[in-house]
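pinging the channel bc i need a second pair of eyes. not urgent but kinda urgent?? the chain im working w is below, pasted from the shared doc
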Amino acid sequence: VMDPNMSQGSGGVDGNKDNDIKFLTSEAQADIKEWSDLDMYVGSFNGELYCMLCAHFKHKGRAQVRNHVEARHFKGTFTHICKHCKEAFNCKMSLNNHMGRECKMKPKRVGLGMNSIKIE
């Protein structure tokens, strides 16, 4: 949800009247070649990180904002491969969901906490 004091200009970087929150428009998007290039779209304001392309996503963790930037604005730029079944995904969020719930080849863990063991 955007603050009414913030604006998205027609090109380049534009922000609110105090120039604290910055947004990038599609004309300002650079070529993304490496995963770390996504960090240029992670802004910081009042202790929270946010997506500088849409401001619809805010989080305290840089990795979560970077994952949003890739999944919503650069899907398909990178290919992420499951290390267990070798299935390919077009964003890291999809790979993380797959690893957490769906991968049939992922080793199962039995037990609780530090006493858990892998069953293969």
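so Confidence is low (pLDDT under 50) at residues 1-19. and Strands lie at 13-15, 22-24, 42-45, 48-51, 58-59, 80-81, 88-89, 108-110, 117-119. — does that match what u expected or am i reading it wrong
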